[in-house]
Structures are given as structure tokens and as C-alpha cells.
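Chapter review: from sequence to fold.
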Amino acid sequence: MGALEFRDDELVGADAGLRDVVRQIEQVAPTDAPVLLLGETGSGKDIVARAIHSRSARAAGPILRVNCGAIAPGLIDSELFGHERGSFTGAAAQRRGWFERADGGTLFLDEIGELPLEAQVRLLRVLQDGVFERVGGADALRVDVRVIAATHRDLAALVRASAFREDLYYRIHVFAIRLPPLRQRRADIPILAAHFAARSGTRLGAAHLAVTPGDAALLQSYDWPGNVRELAAVIERAAILGGGVRLEIARALGLRTEPTAPSEINAFPTLDDAIREHIERALVRARGKIEGEDGAARLLGVHANTLRSRMHKLGVRWERFRRAVV
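The C-alpha cell string follows.
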């Protein structure tokens, strides 16, 4: 499976930083084993879950996503397993739960670490036996559902703290896939940025939005705590700030807040503009630090005082760069 087969968000990097993830998807997808996806928020666990489903024997069936952390504790049983009419106040009609609706397909339990212990007990039963009852019901119902679970939390630590059942942990931990954060696969950033730029251009009805080498350097210098989800938002913001004709990456990252003078779309940058952009890229990489071994002056090959003087002349304020990078 190559990158061209995955033109969707995180898996655009299938030939680079996600190579190992893609290999694991190919290994586990044809089986019916439970899968546990581990990774930071925004790293693409939902995309991987859909990729596993689409390559499984269940591809013709439904894939449903449940955010376990977004369900009120009192409604978890009803949401997962359904309820009978009149089983509680407000239950005006029978309702099929997520497991019943996913029969024959895949149920993606996102943020499974947020489930309370009582719900974990009932979840374990349906995973082991494929059997459950609706809330207020007496009949045992059987379903054929593959479960893919995901979390950004350390489930093993939760088990040690008695906040997550050990038996459930081993049940869902048959095959684990860890997604690397974007900062650990910076080589994927330019192609991801180009993908999101094309998508933003389509949404805005705009012309081709190019990611310049300078844009790529700025993006690769940032640590992306929100991972690919944050990158997508930044690129769309950059497209909007650029009026749909160019990407304003520095402004979208909060690196240049001053309004820029209007110019022709294809105007050639002045020497001061080029120097300013180069200094800003160095400051992003140095996280606003000017002096020292990892400072911007060392990156640029100039004395720190010379850099300060040039920054003062060009109106570059280092404080913005220290704040902008997490």
C-alpha cells in the first residue's frame, strides 16, 4: 500500500513516517482481532481505524465511532447497548445501541480510557461472548462486531492505578498500533501541508495554493502539539489570511501579527523581505533564542549583536517567536 492509495489526512505520509503503521494495518486488517490504537490527540487514530475496516472482510458493513469520553456516565449503557421503551424516564421508544447498530461491521471506541469501571465490566462481557441486553430488557442479544479501541492515555498506568480493568486491557490489547506524533515525522510535513493546501483551495474556490520552501521550513520548525489536526487548521487559516491566492503561514502560526501592506499577488519580494523571512525561520527553529549554541545567531552564522541590529532595522521582535512555539 503506497501513499497514493491514502490521500486522506495523516496517511498521506504512508511512504515515510507512517511506513511502520501502514505495515501493521496490512497485517491486522484481514484478521478479526481487536486493535488498540495509541497516540496523542490529533495524530490520526480515526483515520487508521477506517483504514483497518476498509481492508477487512467487514468492509461492506458499517463502521461507527463512539467517543467514550463524551458520553454522560448515566447514559453509557443506553448508548452502547440500547434501551427498551419505558426503561427509564425519557425512554419514549426502543433504541438500538452502538453495538447493535455496528453488527456485521466495526465499532471504533475512541478514548476508551475514559470509560468508568462499571461500564468496563459490561463492555468486557460483550467482547468475550458477543452477548448483551438492552437497558430494561430481558432478552440476550448477540452481535458480530469487531472492536477497534483508541486512547491517548497510558492504559497500563491506569491498570496499575486500578482505574482500568486488567482483564479488559488484555482483551483489547491483542494488537496495538502506536501512531507517532507529527514532531517525530517532520519529513511528512511538506506533503501533508500540500495536501491540506489543495483541500483548502478547493473549499475556498481558489487557485493552486503553493507551499514554498520557506513555508515548509516554518512548518517543520514547529512542534505541533495538536499534531496533524492542528496542521490542517493552520493551513486553512493561512489560506484564508492569504485571501485564497497564497498561504500566509507565518501569520497563521502567529509569527507575524502586523498587517502587511497590499501588494501584487506575484510581486517579487524585496531583499529586506527575504532577509526578514530568513531571520524569522531561524528564530522559529531556535524558539526565540538569539545567543548560544542553539540560538538563531549561530544558525545564521552572524554575531548575536549583528542579528539584533538587523532585527531592529527590519522590525522583527523575538518575543513573538518565543511565545509562538510550544
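Two observations follow directly from the output. The longest strand covers residues 146-151. The two ends are 34 Å apart (CA to CA).
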